Task: structure prediction
Amino acid sequence: MHQILNRLEQHLKSFDLQKNPNDARKILECNCKLLLKNAGVSLDEYDGKLAQGLIDYLTIERLRISKTQLKKLKTELNFINTYGSIESHDSEEFLIESDIDKLSKSILNLMDFIFNSEYIQIDERIPDYICINYKNITSHLENWRCDKIIKSVYPNRNFEILINSNGYSLYEVKEPDGRKLAFLFFGRNVGFTSSFEEIRDKVNLNIFNSFTILYPNEISKITKKPVLNRTRYIEQLSSKILNESGKIFIKCDFIENYIWDQCLPQQYKQISNITTEKYFIDQVLLDANKNSILTQELVKKLISNTKDDIQPIYLILGSGGAGKTTFCEQSIKAIDHLTEKGIKKKAILLSSYDIPENIPDNKNIENIHDLFYLIKTDTDHINNYSLELNISSGNLLIVIDGLDEIISKLKDNFNLEKFITSILSLNDTYLNSNVIITSRDLSSFVDESILSEIYTLSLQGFDEKLSEEYFNKRFRQHENVDELVKKGLRYLSKINIKSNPTPLILALIGDLILDGDDSIIDEDTEYFIKDNPLDLIIYQMIQRDIEKQNLLISIDNYFEIIRDMIIEYGGKVDSNQLTEIIDMSIENNQESQYSAFFVSPLLSKRGDFFYLKYDALDFWFKTRVLLNLLKGNKKFNKNYLSIIYTSNSYLGGDIVSEIDNFEIDIKTLNYNI
Result:
């Protein structure tokens, strides 16, 4: 078998280099002999047969495969024989470029049917060239993190490596009561029979109470599910070779399954119960090459089991209100459905809103573990080994919402370059590590060479069709749904948005339409920029709320209450704190004004606390406060300027870019900064 595989490797190299049809015929013959040898057919039966004779000798009975599998194999073999023999005989016919392309495709299909089949088990180490080019297995040194698996499952135990061979590692774990446990980790490219025989000859198996055999998960290209035939094959083979006495307890499993079952605490296998946007409309993502994909199609791709064309990091870029948080929540929900069905996959959300307010100066965030424990503070529940193993194997999909906000909050305590590198390093062997990151533009935070290693997509907002779809969904429970949809689209056209509106814009318009007419209010105030669509909408919402609730305050007073809530309390206040803010902002307050303000269309209540109803409003308020402070000379505002500027614009970023869109006298700007 070893010799046949080596010859096949040489013929494949030669064909790929020279595209000689005669090499294709040799590949055909080699693969036929490989199939017969692998099925245990004696060489004497087919020795001396050439291409057509070998093809004819392949039968269901000899290969022990289905009629369908044999038909697929013979279709490609016959095609290769026809084209591969043309230039081997005296003929005036020659293959043209398109024929060679068809021949190459047929060879690729044949190799796929043999080496990536769940019905044909090649129990032999495959030459590197075949692995790399036809099985998509890289030839670099694999790091299955075997020691970390053992440390996670058996903490504080003594263990040692008994054999560290090419393709497998055998560990011995010693229990306090004297029992000895064996752990055999296989790589992707290994001969099982030869490995088991080597272990049997080198190690006294009778010393072990149990023998756990772990091997990488293989996904069928047809069913998209784990190849269970491999498990049955290893179970039968290990029992035959390693357990002749029948006294050893042998357990076989996929490495990824074992990590989920044994290395992940039960609380992380529960669904997240995240509340998603009830008016969610999927939007388009666009990559650097203008290729498009819907956000939920991307999520389905990531959880489809196949590792083909899956990237370790997906960076989703979008402006404030573009739907980044909604995308994260929908992604978590989609994976929750899998978790509920018993599929070993779970998503964990790490949000910028959950970053603690006071970070010690010596607390540096350089990898995904640091960020996880900063937000989750779960070192007692999931240790560093378990976290790394489950991320690396693809059991845990980490979703990071608002990386730009995280950088702004942590400042020099966050090393973006090391952070990205740490995520990429987790994808070294399992090739299934997935991290989704949402952010505004990151180019001001890091060198572009780092970002080039990340697959970047941008949210495109809602075109006219999607906008109409959103309004239909938003107003569908109202009797006059058609009229409301028309009002929403009419208002959208009036505010003169130059690009596709964001979900935030549409959500706010929906709130406005349900609360009144679609007329445009256009007046100057201290904080609002009257020719900006979002400013117009928020201004109008505030004015309507003032009129509706009979609030004895100005629009600027209303703005300042929200401002103080964001700056002094981090955007989260209880009833007493909100009452205190209103007291300090408005003279001659009446009790009715407190309760009236509690139902502001810009706020929502979760539990005992009030928050901004839409996350992206936080960004808008901060930019408008900063613009007002940076262009003014009010000394009593200097403290707010210091707080909000240094906490949100320390390293540049989207807030600085937004401020740069508006003219401010440079001397005043420099003085204030």
User: Anything to note?
Assistant: The chain is about 50% helix and 10% strand.
